[in-house]
Design a protein that fits this description.
Layout lengths: L16 H4 L26 E4 L6 E8 L5 E8 L10 E8 L14 E4 L7 E7 L5 E9 L2 E9 L12 E2 L3 E2 L2 E4 L9 E7 L5 E11 L2 E11 L15 E3 L9 E6 L13 E7 L4 E7 L14 E5 L1 E3 L2 E3 L3 E7 L5 E6 L5 E6 L14 E4 L9 E7 L5 E9 L6 E9 L14 E4 L6 E8 L5 E9 L2 E11 L17
Antiparallel strand pairs: 1-32, 2-3, 3-4, 4-5, 6-7, 7-8, 8-11, 9-10, 12-13, 13-14, 14-15, 16-17, 17-18, 18-19, 20-21, 22-23, 23-24, 24-25, 26-27, 27-28, 28-29, 30-31, 31-32
């Protein structure tokens, strides 16, 4: 394989000698920088762009490591039996702290998985305490997607103690789960690793009702070694939630995790998303064994209709991500008719928290009212501040184009005007369209956002990552290391 690596300057961090010797130590904070400013010591002027195969590459998930390295994953149109560009493959890349690819991982820093010459992708990541990596998303079998998991050893090789049986290696290192009938797509978009090692994947599966197959939310659980956990749900390892809006497809976007990337201590699972085309978002919670949690909202669910009264907006038309704050409250990111990045906060039982922002809601918007600023990802700083990423519609050069958009609120929902430009940072990564799909807070408190970047008149999308200065952080204040290596 050949990679086009970014030109990089040495960053503020080097791998600590203790980390290289196998000891885990916190990485020192970066050189002083104003929160929300680009870390120009990262990559080239604060950005990293990787064009792996001259075809479309996109980042959907980022996972920091304790030694300053980080992992980014998504999809590449990579190398397979059909040749370069033959299909979309699961892609996991590991980076050194300065933004260059880590040559000790995979092939030149990149690992791909293509199981059946169809489209595969990673939507969620977790780095475990031993440095191994679990990636969750979709794997295509016979042209139809299934829930998929991939586990890698710290060097990027597949973990042959995990997943489906293989006559030669023992296990294949990946697992697939078809929930629906043959010929229908099951797609996973969110993942959680429980403290006992079991793995939760959430997404959608088609269910026939009202004369058509509509997507409904599906939650599946696997054992730590990648087998379906039949103790979850009705004995098949899967829970399918009832429709949130009748004859409309549901879109699952998130599992709410805490700042360290964990489920709540009670193991209950909060998922979120929206009903397609119905201007309403939802949150739902199931117990640790997969039954609806009646103590949450109405029968285990909260529906957030988008509305406007006297020009004041409420609710959400779509929900992109959710997090669990240190006090157990749930923070949701989405958008509505005001077309900005909106956050709302709910109590642990699903009631709107009116003490947050204005009537439980706060919005940051960059573009004019005729344009959309779209949210995609959410993270929390150790001090409770709320970080979101997506894209802003930028007309600074005349024609509208998308740019990375990273925003921050204080813990009480007020816009953090000390971050970037009055609470946000709009960054044109390349000179074409740019969009962020993932955001994460490093141990140092700095912020990574990842997605894709394009150049004018050049069709392919490239892996794109930027780093912004954040706040000094403590990911591990709860005494649990969050799985970071």
């Amino acid at each position: 394989m050949k990679f086009t690596k970014p030109t990089v300057r040495l960053h503020r961090l080097a791998l600590a000698a203790s980390a290289l010797l196998g000891c885990v130590a916190a990485v020192p904070a970066s050189a002083a920088g104003r929160p929300g400013d680009l870390d120009t010591g990262f990559g080239q002027g604060g950005y990293v762009i990787n064009d792996f195969f001259g075809t479309n590459d996109e980042v959907y998930a980022i996972a920091p490591m304790r030694d300053g390295r980080f992992v980014a994953a998504g999809k590449v149109n990579g190398s397979n039996a059909s040749g370069v560009g033959g299909s979309e493959n699961m892609a996991i890349a590991r980076y050194l702290p300065n933004g260059s690819l880590d040559p000790s991982f995979g092939s030149g820093g990149l690992v791909e998985l293509d199981v059946d010459a169809g489209p595969d992708e990673v939507r969620a990541l977790r780095v475990l305490s031993d440095g191994s990596i679990i990636a969750g998303g979709s794997l295509t079998t016979s042209s139809y997607s299934d829930f998929g998991l991939l586990k890698l050893r710290p060097d990027g090789s597949r973990d042959t103690t995990f997943g489906e049986p293989d006559a030669v290696t023992g296990r294949r290192g990946y697992a697939r789960l078809a929930i629906s009938a043959a010929g229908l797509h099951d797609s996973a978009y969110a993942m959680a690793v429980q403290r006992d090692g079991r793995i939760v994947l959430a997404g959608t599966t088609p269910v026939f009702h009202d004369g058509f197959n509509y997507n409904q939310v599906a939650i599946a659980r696997f054992t730590a070694d990648g087998l379906v956990d039949t103790s979850f749900g009705g004995g098949d390892g899967v829970v399918v939630l009832d429709p949130f809006y009748g004859a409309a497809g549901d879109v699952l976007t998130t599992i709410a995790l805490d700042q360290s990337g964990n489920l709540g201590s009670d193991g209950r699972i909060v998922v979120g998303g929206y009903a397609f085309g119905r201007n309403c978002a939802f949150l739902a919670r199931v117990t640790a064994n997969g039954t609806p949690d009646s103590s949450f909202g109405q029968g285990g669910r909260v529906v957030l209709a988008s509305a406007s009264t006297g020009g004041v907006y409420s609710g959400m038309s779509s929900l992109a991500a959710a997090r669990i704050a240190a006090d157990g409250k749930i923070i949701a990111l989405g958008t509505a008719g005001d077309r900005g990045l909106a956050v709302m906060r709910f109590t642990a039982n699903g009631a709107l928290d009116g003490t947050f922002g204005t009537n439980g809601r706060s919005v940051i918007k960059f573009s004019g009212m005729a344009d959309n600023d779209e949210p995609a990802a959410l993270a929390l700083q150790g001090n409770g501040k709320i970080v979101a990423a997506g894209y802003a519609t930028n007309r600074a050069t005349g024609a509208a184009h998308k740019d990375f958009f990273v925003t921050r609120w204080l813990a009480n929902g007020a816009i953090d005007t000390g971050f970037g430009e009055q609470g946000y940072r709009v960054s044109q990564v390349a000179t074409g369209q740019d969009e962020a799909f993932a955001v994460a807070v490093e141990v140092s408190g700095d912020i990574l956002a990842g997605g894709y970047a394009t150049r004018p008149n050049v069709a392919p999308r490239d892996f794109a990552i930027l780093r912004l200065f954040g706040d000094p952080d403590r990911l591990f204040a709860d005494g649990f290391d969050g799985g970071l290596f």
